[in-house]
Each structure stands twice: as structure tokens, then as C-alpha cells.
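re the bet — no i am not wrong, look at it urself. input seq straight from the record:
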Amino acid sequence: MASDSETERVVRISKIAGRYLVFDLQDVVYLRRHHNICAVFVGTMPQNPTQNIFMGLPVELLAAEASVLLNKGAAYIADEAVEHLSRLSAMDETGRKAYLQSLKTQRRKAQATMDEERAARSAEAKARHLGAKAKKQQPPSEPLVAEEPLFDSAPQPEFSPASVSTPTPRTVSAAPGITPGTSAGLIDGCTELTAASAPKPSPLFAHLNSKGYFITPGLRFGGDYSVYPGDPFRFHAHFMATSYEWEEELTMLDLVASGRLGTAVKKGYLLGGQRPRTDGGDGRGGLVDGGEVRAFCMEWAGM
């Protein structure tokens, strides 16, 4: 069961060159587990940086995903270029010492984890050695009838236990230095967003996310989003979704093509939009500064 501190976690979203990135692994796990946000890995793997098939941290959020998290109060956005210049230039001696102390704390935790793993490996190796030694000390079972060789053979040399080479223990080096994966310990403030710099919301995305669906980019299936009933690690996508404006005209050719494409990839074609909110209101609270969101699902079937 998740702890209260985990459920009340506020995720730091780094805005770099107009992209919304999350660098902290615990934040990535939290978003997927508690907010159905999968995002996309865009970083290279440290052990194999030249490949481009399996990606690593950070993850990149869609603008719609970042907007949903901001509206929920589950995240804040930090403009890295602005915050680094302003915070580092204004840092005093007290802040510098606090940051260095946080690095020392992380190093002690890493050292404790390494010591535990080393002790576990040592105990396992010792148990294997004792088991092999006990097996060697067991007397061999003698045959009932002595067997005599047909041909004379040269006597076999006897090996004494002293002749067996024992591995020399490796010297344990000092703990490596800590390289933080994020700058949250150094820059922990959020950036004030204007209407132009805020992530663009998607009412359809917010509507589907509020219903518990997992959503990923849907370009490979011909839509804006791929919609999953559960975690994509366990389920296939049930819908390919496209967002429209409320008064946007739809051609019959687009509907037929999208419906047939959705059926061809074994998915329903979902389209939706948000009703504009009038000055007096329509009596229904919208998810993203508007009225209700309506969604429809289409399937192409032979008559």
C-alpha cells in the first residue's frame, strides 16, 4: 500500500527547449502508478549510448499530460534555463553548504547500500564454499568386490590441499562520488507560467485520464492518442482517439477512413471534443476551462 508521502508527492517537470521532461526515476514511477501517465523515454542508456531502440531517462511528457498534472496540483514546471541562471547567481554560502551536505547524505546512503550488497554476496560465497568442502570430506562408498585393472598403469600423483590455489580477496575501493541525476536539490522552485508559456491543454485527454484510461501517443495507429483500459504493459489499446473542436466540420471521407483504419488495427475509432462554455455556464463543470466533453466511438463493420 502506498504511503501518504508518496500519494502527496509533487513532481518536478523540467521545461527545456519547449519540451517537458522528468528526470527523477521515483517521479516516473509515481506518475505511472497514481496518475496513469506513461510518457515516453527519450534518453540514451548509459551502458549502450549508441543504440536508439531501448531508451532511458528522462521521459518526455506531452503538453496535454503536463497540463493535466498541473491542474491536479500533482506537479510543477521549472524552466531550467531561467532557474539555473537566477538560482546559481543568487546562491549564498548557506545554500551552498546545504547542497554539499545533501550530496554527502546521498553518498552515505549509497555506501550503506553497497555494503549490504557486498555482505550478502560474501555470505552467499561462504555458504557455497562450506557446502563444497563438506561434500569433499564425505568418505567415498567402497565397492563390494575389489576391481583389479587389466593393465598396469602408472601411479597417479596425489594432490595435497596446500597445492590448491585459493583466490585472493579483492581490495575494496572507496565509494564513488555521487553524480545527481536531477538538479532538484539545487533548484527546487517552480517557474511562474504565463498563458503563452503554459502547456496547451487537451480536453479529450483530460476526460479520458479522469476515467482511468492510460494514454500514449497514437501516431502509429493514425490518431492523436492510443487509449488503453489499463497499463500498456498488460493491455492492448482499445481505441485510437482524435480530438476535434466542438464546431469543427468533419468530412465523411475522414470518418470512413478513420473508422476503417481503426478496425484494421483491431481498435475502435474514438473522437471527441469539448462544448464551449457560455457566459452563464451550462450547469456542468468542465475539465479544462470549458463545458462538458463528449466522446463517440466508431467501428467499421460489413453490413
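see?? Residues 96 and 178 are 16 Å apart (CA to CA). told u. also The helical segments are 4-7, 25-35, 63-72, 80-90, 93-137, 203-210, 252-264. so pay up
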